[in-house]
Amino acid sequence: VSLKPDGSRRNNASNPDAELFAQVVGTVIHFKYGKLVRLRWFIDQEEFSESVAGDDATKALVPTIGDKELIQHSHETYQFADRIHRKVPIVAFSPSRLGLPVIDDMTYYTRTTLSVKWALEPHTITIASTHNDSICSRDCNLNNLVDVNEELIMRFCELCQCWFHKQCLVVSPATVPTLEELKATRPPQPEDEAEADYLYNSGQITFSGHDFTIWMSLLHRPIQRGYSEYPWLLSFERLLDAVRRHDRAWGCPSDVQDFVTQHLSMAPSLVHLTDKYRAIVQAPYPDIYYYCPDCDSAI
User: Which end of the chain, C or N, has fewer beta carbons within 10 A?
Assistant: First the structure.
């Protein structure tokens, strides 16, 4: 939720146009004050500046915070329920795991692995916790950090279950990504669109050649976070992970468009733009793959 500043949390009541962001973690009925809400606060990029960073590690983190990123604050307070201004959809994700929904440049988001706290020195903050150790390789060129203000393009290795910065990878000559082994019970699949159409028209399979071509295109897409055409964390990682898991077990579904729609995983504020982002993920994509630094898979 967002609240208008009133001076109860910080010295910012003089800015009536500002919004403060918090997560409602509980409610209580007070015999004197009525309904109160228990809030866990967030701070945004504007508040999280080097001037309030209490140590070098916190200062180093400041430039990596995105325009719409909210950082969890360990501070909690109680506030009057009627002070809540509006509900705000905030996407939470771990930078080291698959799970980021499709977002746009107006979506507020937060990292579940990062939080800050008040420092001993007045009006300063320090990192309370951060768990990015599994980001990239031991030879990472970017200190194993996620920096959304740089060209954030990362590749995910399905076998190692790890994200790697593109800047830390070497191009592979592979023409398809390395996928996990198929299940023994998976039905046989056609070789190409023509065979798929023949089998479909003869009633032997439930998907057309056109569906099969789209499915194979999605199956061969690398799981990537960030796109050069879109300067934010745009990612189709949930969808592509679902495509790979489904293909291992059952192969191409009977209705690929319906499968994409069901697994696209849009942020709550973008559901009405599902057709737009479905077209983006199904558009032709350059087949450039990289070696995984840990297992040499094509990613």
Answer: N
Quote the pLDDT of residue 69: 94
What DSSP line would sit under 214-249, residue for residue? HHHHHHTS--EEEETTEEEEEE-HHHHHHHHHHHHH
Distance separating alpha carbons of residues 162 and 151, to the nearest angstrom: 19
pLDDT digits (tens, 9 = 90+) for 41-69: 999 988 888 888 988 889 988 988 999 99
The CATH fold assigned to 2-130 is SH3 type barrels. (2.30.30)
Write the CA distances from 37 to 32, 71, 121, 204, integer angstroms.
Answer: 14, 20, 29, 59
Tokens (6 digits) for 268:
């709550």
Residue 85 to residues 8, 20, 44, 53, Cα–Cα distance (Å): 15, 9, 17, 28
Residue 163, helix vs strand vs coil = strand
Alpha-carbon distance of 83 to 81, in angstroms, equals 5
Average pLDDT in the chain: 89
Sequence spans of domains, the chain: 2-130, 154-297
Residue 270 DSSP one-character state: G
Q: What is the pLDDT of residues 140-181, one digit of tens each?
A: 988 888 888 877 899 999 999 999 999 999 999 999 999 999
pTM of the complete model: 0.88
DSSP string, 253-264: -S-HHHHHHHHS
Radius of gyration of the chain (CA): 23
CA 251 to chain centre: 26
Q: Which two tokens stand for residue 146?
A: 């996620």
Dist CA 141 CA 197 (whole Å): 48
